[in-house]
Amino acid sequence: MNKMISIEEAVDHIKDGMTIMIGGFLGCGSPHRLIDALVKKGVKDLTLICNDSGFPEIGAGKLVVNKQIKKLIASHVGTNRETGNQMNSGEMEVVLVPQGTLAEQVRAGGSGLGGFLTPTGVGTVVEEGKQKIEIDGKTFLLELPLRADVALIAGETVDKFGNIVYYGATRNFNTLMATAADMVIVEAEEVVEVGELDPNHVVTSGIFIDYIVNGGGK
Amino acid sequence: MDLKEFIAKRVAKELNDGDVVNLGIGLPTMVANHVPENMSVYFQSENGFIGLGPAPEEGNEDPYIVNAGAQCVTILPGGVFFDSSTSFGIIRGGHVDITVLGALQVDEKGNLANWMIPGKMVPGMGGAMDLVTGAKKVIVAMEHTVKGNHKILKECNLPLTAAGEVNLIITEMGVIEVTKEGLLLKEINPEYTIEEVQAATEAKLIIAENLTKMEI
After folding, report:
1. What is the ipTM of this complex?
2. Does some domain include residue A125?
3. Would residue B143 show up in a list of annotated catalytic residues for this protein?
4. What is the CATH number of the domain that holds A56?
5. Which residues, at least 6 apart from B170, have a Cβ–Cβ distance to it below 8 Å?
6. Minimal Cα–Cα distance from A46 to chain B, Å?
7. pLDDT tens figures, B61-80
8. pTM (predicted TM-score)
9. Does residue A50 sit at the B interface (CB-CB below 8 Å)?
10. Which range marks the domain in which residue A67 is found?
């Protein structure tokens, strides 16, 4: 099974109106070349699930600037003024979610859970419209899982099966999103042959990965 | 001494040997510069590691080792990287001893508002709601007022970050503990009188019987 495809072939899988996830934290650990190709392709009306909307020039924020996002689900949008502009004008719907809740929603989506109970957001606007459940005298919010049509993630060293080794603080949402979409595409800094990675160091198994793009050209 | 530096230095006195600590962006980040010697404190960065170290020397920046504000930092020997689910499991699970963050408003019930001003500024809560809900001790570190306006209120009127989770408020004027009875002024900066601190605070302060001088 050959999972290696070109960046153009990768973004061809993304159509107008789809729900996509993009890994990264303020651009750190984002699949930058896939994002650039998606901007070039110009698909629109996307629902984007992402920790944040990056910066106007860095990360998933470029898709916001290019007006390709219909709905954004994120924990932080303060570093991209364009997100605020489109939110205030009503061009883009923005759902703000506590970061830990967002991470867990993606994890739940990828691991067969129907939801989870978190104390985060109790007594704030986050609880609006959500079921509250008391366990041992403590109040929790029922939060539901998130899934996507396509997840675009980034890895440092990836073998041709899709096993991923990460570097630095780039794991963030990548490991979670790898499990929570119908199709998962990883942008690798470096692609190696199967067997070259030490299984002790692999964080994301290749079973989650549908396609690999060689982003680093190594 | 710079006002913010003074506050950060006082906050650092709250740290204990072995604590896991998460510092917010801005003034709280400065607390890291004042960890007492011979004390091991482990800084957690919610974007995915424990062992956050100081900014690297110029030329040694690594774009993949950044803090939650996207600034280049370092990871110390003994540190570890993890994903966001693990990171917030650490936070919600009570494994963070102290979180230090700023506030737009804080009130006498320990409610905190620091993530949005409706119609003006809506950056999102990021990790703040989880941190304030999950950390064992929540310290608000900030200047006592903003442009002469009260920030320590009877009741917050901005959207809350969390309800009733703040334990301690440290400003340039003093150290205030949130108690069931209300806000207890425990330490006062000798440059101010009790009347001045009360005038700068909307909520009624309870003055500790053993009120002491705020020292850094």
Report:
1. 0.96
2. no
3. no
4. 3.40.1080.10
5. B7, B10, B11, B14, B139, B140, B141, B176
6. 20
7. 999 999 999 999 999 999 99
8. 0.97
9. no
10. 7-114+145-214
